[in-house]
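Take a specimen:
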Amino acid sequence: MAIVAYRFSERPELWDRIAGLSEEVWPEYNLHGDVLNRYWVHLYDLFAEYQFVLYDPDADEVLAEGHSIPVAWGGELADLGPGIDASIAAGFALHAEGGSASALCALAAEIPPRHRERRLASVILEQMRALASSAGLRSLIAPVRPNWKQRYPLTPIERYVTWVRPDGSPFDPWIRVHVRLGGRIGPALPRSMRIIGSVADWEAWTGMAFPESGRYVFPACLTTVDIDRDGDVGSYWEPNVWIVHYLDRT
């Protein structure tokens, strides 16, 4: 039997099985977004129809989870905004104001390591496109976290997103999935998601010691963290890249 997508609004009990999914998928530091975490827990209350899982009926198993939120966007790349923090905040503000959405913004595709050989990334992306279309939205927009960027943390995101393979396709696998499904690479986002914590927080999140103030590379980072020991603060901006799927042009 084929994999089935269920929205939270349809089968909320499936989420009882994946309480620790985010911890399986993301490096620890990525679970502490200053802005993102403020809104994340409310996605299921206000945007239940845009949160979904991929479910294998034969195995009776949840395979992956997708998150998205409706936003207002006029269609110009220059108006996409600075990244995921701004987008999730704008989506909640639009809902509170009773405004009309025109695009669906992808927030996360969570596939645990044990299921990654099943090539579910494109299935999640196709489901997000379908959700957007069924809601009458014109575009799916995604502030994408390139999954090979952690191999090149010192390369600026603006340069990284221009890299291609010998066949001309995008170098990064996640960007490549988007492009193969019709996505258009948009602006690079050097400051998409902010994470700030104490020095002790960052040492716990990364398993590293930061003996003095400065910029550090750490495991699974996409860029460096700025450590200020005198101020007892570590500051990090996760870089992303916009990818746009114009659904009314396909």
